[in-house]
Amino acid sequence: CLALIKNISFAVIFLFTVNTLMAQPIQKRSSKSPNIIFIYTDDLGYGDLSCYGATKISTPHIDELAAKGIRFTNAHTTSATCTPSRYALMTGQYPWRKNGTGVLPGDAALIIPTDKISLPKIFKTAGYRTAIVGKWHLGLGNEVNKDWNSAIKPGPNEVGFDYSFIFPATADRVPTVFLENHHVVAADTTDPIRVDYKNPVGNDPTGKEHPELLKMASSPGQGHNQTIVNGIGRIGYMQGGHQARWTDEEMPLTFLSKAKGFIEDNQQQPFFLYYALTEPHVPRMPSTMFKGKSGLGYRGDAILQLDWTVGEIIKQLKYLDLYNNTIIIFSSDNGPVLDDGYVDGAVTQLNGHTPAGRLRGGKYSILEAGTRVPFIISWPQTIKPAISPALVSQIDFIASFARLTGQKIPAGQATDSEDHLNAFLGKTQQGRSVLVEHAGTLAIVSGDWKYIHPSNGIAYYKLTDTETGNSPEPQLYNLKQDIRERENLATKYPEKVKELQQLLEAIRNK
Ligand code: NG6
Ligand code: CA
């Protein structure tokens, strides 16, 4: 009997010990390298978040990041559209140095070199696990004419991501499919995919011929009226892959579950997650739980959805005890636009909301709202909450994170990227002394001054209601006194114009 009791108590103690051991986090992470999550939104404007002054919409989860981290007021993407901004992010090179870096169609070939340094490679060589989840828009494969039904490479995996779950271009462009690593998700060999941007392919109805089949009308004159997928006319023609075509309302939830899966799988080691959300880019088709919630139309609903998504990521990081040692960067790839191709209520239900805040211009514009974007960095364990006026750019991530992870950038590469780690981490409020902005033309910001180079592009895009900032005359603004870029001081300060022209010229010729 005694022996039995002894055995039972041994078993109890054994089980108790195993249980307690299992309940403990295997390693305490605080001394380890921080994880990095870069949450990159699509077309979110400087005034779209309540922490940046929006009053018609409330974004509590992003506001929490801002309250505990650094909220930058003069942070930029390189360009006023997506592909060039993302090109710069990946390469550390200004996109206007290279032809073919404008907004890409969905069948474009990869434009990022695979034999040079890239943002994910910085982390990968430092021993991080790297992933992209979300929008890619930098081309895939070596050819435009590619076979979507077999392995597609090179792509994000060859650029430095260990894992990729993406869509190729934009949500309004075919092919409307996800790719996991090299393959289209849910591809079906009996229904092969073909994509064409010039000639119609396949038998699916187009928005142009069958507007009665659309659940959201495309805006007249903008051309989102080719192959219809999920009741939405797209740019480009697509044949086959019916099983693989996404449902727009599910897309953000799909990306979220992939992002959370990657975080969970890699909780024991440092990771870099590039989480590229599609909101609030067109077509705005939020999940049912967000439809109608903002009162501002689907654009507002999409912003609420992206805020919720950020909250879900924060929640998961806290649950896994990773939050304190994770650097979360939140930003946008270009400024805001209301009507970008669909009649979705963004214009009619605006209700006084100001997507660009106090800034002038928006997406496609060389004026400040084109590239000055929301930009928040949180790292609870290290960063002290602050608002920073430092002039910084997403192009600086490569050089800055190279320093954070002790990497050296090969000579002659990522040459436009500057190390501003100290500004990113709030150790200084001093950032760049000079930054080039890019839309239809170039502008240069230096100190309080901004010079916009003359261009013959049109001054106003009627379809998207965009002030482009283009002018055949040189423009000079004092951003400190005139953040709205109302008063052109070029004739008053010709010396300043000359100085900035020369500076811009020197950077162009670098
Ligand atoms: C434009 C599209 C717009 C959007 C944009 C890319 C037209 C008329 N408009 O050409 O709808 O897709 O490209 O947006 O085709 S971005 O955020 O990816 O740069
Ligand atoms: Ca964009």
UniProtKB/TrEMBL annotation:
<protein>
    <submittedName>
        <fullName>Arylsulfatase</fullName>
    </submittedName>
</protein>
<keyword id="KW-0378">Hydrolase</keyword>
<comment type="similarity">
    <text>Belongs to the sulfatase family.</text>
</comment>
<dbReference type="InterPro" id="IPR017850">
    <property type="entry name" value="Alkaline_phosphatase_core_sf"/>
</dbReference>
<dbReference type="InterPro" id="IPR000917">
    <property type="entry name" value="Sulfatase_N"/>
</dbReference>
<dbReference type="InterPro" id="IPR024607">
    <property type="entry name" value="Sulfatase_CS"/>
</dbReference>
<dbReference type="InterPro" id="IPR052701">
    <property type="entry name" value="GAG_Ulvan_Degrading_Sulfatases"/>
</dbReference>
<dbReference type="Pfam" id="PF00884">
    <property type="entry name" value="Sulfatase"/>
</dbReference>
<feature type="domain" description="Sulfatase N-terminal">
    <location>
        <begin position="34"/>
        <end position="406"/>
    </location>
</feature>
